[in-house]
Amino acid sequence: RGNTNAHAHLNKQQGRDAESYSLLAPGQFCVMDPPKGNAECVKVIVRCRPLSQKEVDEGRQRIVSMDLENGQVRVKNPKAGNTEPEKCFSFDKVYDWNCKQIDVFNETAKPIMNSCLEGYNGTIFAYGQTGTGKTHTMEGVPTDPDLRGIIPNTFQGIFDHIDKSSDKNYLVRASFLEIYNEEVRDLLSKNSQNSLQVKETPESGVYVKDLTNFVVKGVAELNNVLNVGKKNRSVGATLMNQDSSRSHSIFAVTIECSSMSPVAGEDATIRVGKLNLVDLAGSERQGKTGATGDRLKEATK
Q1: Nearest-CA neighbor of 187 among 231, 236, 124, 129?
Q2: Distances from the Cα of 186 to the Cαs of 77, 121, 176, 201, 233, in angstroms?
């Protein structure tokens, strides 16, 4: 689905997706590798956050341990004492509560970003119950270099690469949508509450009809598009999180690269890569969130 040229439509070439990371609860990731010697197309990375102040005040105890070297999560039953062995789960990589945002980006998201710049498609998504740190991992604090999440670090990385490329021309476009109560909404539209239709054609594959795309020329413009969309996103309070994401959001960055052929008379080669940055709504039991009314309806969709 990447590596197209000027004479072929996207998705008509041999479909090759870049790595896709998924962040799963209790803070997890899922990843797809490009065909560069990596046997696995999907990888799962788990990130465990520290205890919150509320949990500390309530006297909660940590029952999860992270084996960083072997990529394992060990869970013990606090009611069983030493009579019951720990349950062990293996993943492609794990991060504990001491990990840094930049390390998560460099080791998980940056390889996908680089593949998208080469014309592949990639997806990074966060999955987990409310309050596990999905939005913190994906967004973080954009104004603080130490707390920047995957999205702002990716924005900076894309344009740092473009600035260093002197023999290629790039066109970067951005779109932002949410899936709320089984409806697809354009977060960049003036009428963001309108529902859009999902279509499919043999030439372009699955797409959202009338979805707004903005051409961006730098990190500031890309951040502006993100911030405009975030204002229209559906959030709501639950017992587990005051500002819980109540919808799935997909921020897509399409990168078109044009390079001249070294052979005189031949057309330029165009490569198109697309990076999907996804923040999923909280996945949890409704009884734990105290969901009623609209919150309960959101959780069942």
Answers
A1: 231
A2: 44, 21, 6, 20, 10
Q: Which is more confident, 300 or 279?
A: 279
What is the mean pLDDT of the segment spanning 200-207?
85
159-196 burial: b if 16+ Cβ within 10 Å, else e: beebeeeeeeebebebbbbbbbeeebbbbbbeebeeeb
For tokens 């859009």, the residue is 196
Mean pLDDT of 241-250: 62
pTM of the model: 0.76
* Main-chain dihedrals φ then ψ at residue 147, nearest 5 degrees: -115, 5
**Residue 220 reports pLDDT greater than 50:** yes
Helix/strand/coil for 235: strand
Q: Could you please report the per-residue DSSP string of 56-115? A: HHTT----EEEETTTTEEEE--TTTTTSSPPEEEE-SEEE-TT--HHHHIIIIIHHHHHH
Our CA dihedral for 147, 153, 156, 160, rounded to 10 degrees, sits at 120
